[in-house]
Structure formats: C-alpha cells, structure tokens
Design a protein that fits this description.
The chain is mainly beta. It is built from 3 helices and 24 strands. Helix content is about 10%, strand content about 45%. The relative contact order is 0.14.
Length: about 300
C-alpha cells in the first residue's frame, strides 16, 4: 500500500539540506573568505584525519569497470575498492567536490571549489577525470557555475547551479549548456533509466517531473522531498531527511515505505540494482534488496 510522506518531513529535509550546505561551505571565516574569492576548501581537517574529512560527503558513485566505490567530499575524493571497506584518499588534491557523477569506467565529472593550493577561480564549473579521480581538468564554466546537484546519463548532463538557481542541461558531455528554470530550489534530481529527457526533481515545493529535459514541469507530489535514485523503470527511490527509504513503481506519483538507512542522508545513488547511501558520520551503507536492508559498505 502506498504511503504519504507528510509535510513536516519535507520541511525537515529542507532544514537538513540547509544545515549540510552551510556546514559544507565552512564556518564563518571560510564563508567570509569565499565571498572575497578565497576558498579554503581543504584547510579544516588535519592531514590524515579521514573521519573529519568524510563527515562532509557530497556525492557517491561506483566505477562500472572496477566496482570501486567513490566518495566525493568537501576535502577531496576517497575510494574503497570492491571487497574492501576502508576508504582511502584518491590523489593529492583536497578540492571541494560538490556535484559528482560517474560517467563510465575511470571517467567521472564533478564541480565545486579548488584546493587552496590551486590558483583557480572560486567556482570550478564542470570538471572531469579520466583516470579514476587521480586528476581533474576543467571542461566548461570555470568561474561561472557551482553545481550542487550533478547527474549524467551518457552525454546528457544535468546540473543545478547553486550560484544562479538555474538548472543547466548539456547533450554533448558538458561543453555546451542550455539554461532552464527549475520549478523551485532543488535538493536533487534523477534521470529516467529509459529516457534521458525525463527527469524527476526533488525541490522545496515537493517532487516535479519533466519530459523535455527541464523545459516544462508537472507537479507530482507536494508532500515529499529527499534524495533520489532511479535504477529501473519501476523503481524510483527516495530517502527522506530521517533516512526512511520509499519506492515508487509509477515514476513518483505514489510511494511505498521499504526500509531505513539508519539516519539522515548526505548522499544517495544507485549502481545497477544496488543502492548506496552516505551517513553523517562518514559511513556508506548499501542495499542489495531494494532498500529493505542496509549494511555498511565503507568506513572512514
């Protein structure tokens, strides 16, 4: 039986996301620096303090070639190889990776803010790695975009630019972009696995669907919000601010509660039939049975 997700949970998720965003952007000193064009993305934790670094997770992804889990954080990229639980830093950069998406084997895209040692504008625009995260280079929008939400399906990319409040879409891997108006401030976005032009957005006003890459929108529900994953046509998943996982078999029109990740989420993604969720303490949990049961996949 479908279940309704009440308005207080939507508000809870909005408050949670606001708190996470403010925490991810640093304290008062860092915020003041950012306003002056100085970003101290990787300056907070002491070297080797992975627990602190992994308490600010922005994105997750699994490399389809190696099976390794990748974790994008405020202080760089971490990974745990298939069969291993310990997360280890990838490369030397401590850049703040906000949006993050795995495009293909060893190929990732991201956004965010530079490592303090890099002589770059405060906003990285769209960056890409073709060596499994060891290095990144700018593709477009350097100094112009800060994608807090970034999703891809082949050469189709969607990014919510936190600086302008606009949804940006690209059909050529992120070199050229079209700007769209989202229905409201966006928490997350997911792509229909059978149609890359059909997307569902989680916003401050609930869930909305677009069938034309964000040019037009139709409301789905005004009583639901959370992080989204859409691994199969009949399995659209939402995890709310309390960590409750719900599944929709009809593209977001109705949901059924299926399980819990055990706490508020900081990132949520699917890989094949598996679901991955990051918690505030730096752990990443995984479900292999449609969100009913969750086990720890990786730890700081």
């Amino acid at each position: 039986m479908a279940t309704r997700i009440h308005i207080p949970r939507l508000l809870l998720f909005a408050l949670l996301l606001t708190a996470l965003t403010l925490a991810a952007c640093g304290g008062d000193d860092e915020t003041a620096g950012a306003e002056n064009g100085e970003v101290a993305a990787g300056s907070a934790p002491a070297p080797g303090d992975q627990q602190a670094a992994l308490e600010h997770i922005h994105g997750l992804g699994v490399d389809p070639g190696s099976g390794s889990l990748y974790v994008a954080t405020h202080y760089g990229l971490f990974a745990a190889a298939e069969g291993q639980a310990k997360l280890r830093r990838v490369g030397e950069s401590r850049q703040d990776i906000m949006g993050f998406s795995v495009v293909g084997p060893r190929r990732f895209i991201g956004s965010g803010h530079p490592d303090p040692s890099q002589d770059l504008p405060p906003n990285l625009g769209l960056i890409e790695s073709r060596d499994a995260g060891k290095s990144f280079k700018n593709i477009s929008l350097l100094g112009e975009a800060d994608f807090h939400v970034l999703r891809s399906a082949g050469r189709q990319i969607y990014g919510f630019n936190s600086g302008t409040g606009k949804l940006m879409t690209s059909t050529d891997g992120g070199r050229e972009w079209t700007e769209r108006a989202p229905p409201a401030g966006m928490f997350d976005l997911t792509i229909d696995p059978t149609d890359s032009q059909r997307i569902v957005a989680s916003t401050e006003l609930g869930l909305f669907v677009s069938v034309d890459s964000g040019e037009g929108w139709r409301p789905l529900r005004d009583d639901a919000a959370g992080l989204l994953a859409w691994p199969a046509p009949d399995s659209l998943f939402l995890v709310d601010g309390e960590g409750q996982v719900s599944r929709s078999a009809d593209g977001g029109e109705s949901f059924e509660a299926v399980g819990s990740i055990g706490g508020p989420p900081s990132a949520f993604v699917s890989h094949g039939e598996e679901l991955y969720a990051a918690l505030g303490d730096g752990k990443v949990t995984r479900s292999t049975n449609g969100g009913e049961k969750w086990t720890v996949r990786a730890t700081p």
